[in-house]
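In the design runs reported in the main text, the only information available to the sequence generator was the tokenized backbone. The following block is the verbatim input for one such run; it is reproduced so that readers can re-run the procedure and compare outputs position by position.
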């Protein structure tokens, strides 16, 4: 990996981290999209995304905890099944002909999810049915471990759609959900004697810096709609590339 190539990759990861953290997400799908667009080997996608997601989600978790928005009642049934399933997904290694289409579909679904992004403050909320939450958590956890995404980008719209929590509460829960699933998936990955790519520490620094900047800018009410529309376009391009190449 040449220095100019690595420098451009670092700058892109920094920008992705800033944009995602400003709208309350860890950014795993954005990091995977970046690696795909830079033609990095698919084997590096999962460990790289999990490490970067872990750092950025950790920053978001601290911010939301300090702001008092976190709800353990809303998180626990999803996390109870997602964490072990994420570990299993991280442990498993899918062949390229399965992994690439799966990641492509996740990126396209993430793009569609972001293109429909809204900011609503629901006043009437209800707790999710525990059996449903356990099932959803298991599915999202397995998907998280297999692909390297944290699962929050899929959990948050479900919580909004079914009015299981308020916007800030959902953002806090999604951040912690991403954090614990990324940690479990990374542990599963390492447990299977797989390695982390040598360039990840540099990307981790860029992502952490971007997460801090994005969290600060997000609190200043940046134009979220324009940001997520641009992100959705990048994800769509990368997803289609993974499906076709």
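Verbatim output:
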């Amino acid at each position: 990996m040449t220095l100019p190539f690595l420098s451009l990759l670092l700058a892109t990861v920094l920008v992705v981290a800033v944009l995602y953290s400003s709208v309350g997400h860890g950014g795993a799908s954005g990091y995977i999209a970046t690696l795909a667009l830079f033609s990095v080997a698919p084997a590096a996608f999962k460990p790289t995304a999990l490490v970067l997601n872990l750092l950025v989600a950790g920053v978001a978790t601290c911010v939301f905890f300090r702001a008092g928005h976190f709800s353990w009642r809303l998180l626990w049934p999803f996390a109870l099944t997602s964490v072990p399933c994420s570990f299993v997904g991280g442990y498993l290694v899918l062949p390229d002909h399965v992994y690439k289409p799966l990641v492509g579909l996740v990126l396209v679904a993430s793009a569609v999810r972001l293109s429909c992004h809204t900011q609503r403050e629901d006043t009437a909320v209800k707790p999710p049915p525990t059996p449903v939450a356990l099932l959803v958590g298991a599915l999202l956890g397995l998907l998280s471990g297999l692909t390297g995404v944290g699962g929050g980008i899929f959990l948050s719209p479900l919580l909004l759609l079914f009015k299981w929590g308020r916007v800030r509460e959902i953002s806090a829960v999604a951040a912690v959900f991403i954090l614990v699933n990324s940690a479990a998936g990374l542990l599963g990955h390492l447990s299977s004697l797989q390695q982390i790519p040598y360039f990840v520490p540099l990307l981790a620094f860029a992502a952490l810096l971007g997460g801090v900047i994005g969290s600060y800018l997000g609190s200043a009410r940046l134009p979220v709609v324009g940001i997520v529309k641009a992100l959705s376009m990048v994800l769509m391009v990368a997803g289609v590339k993974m499906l076709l190449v």
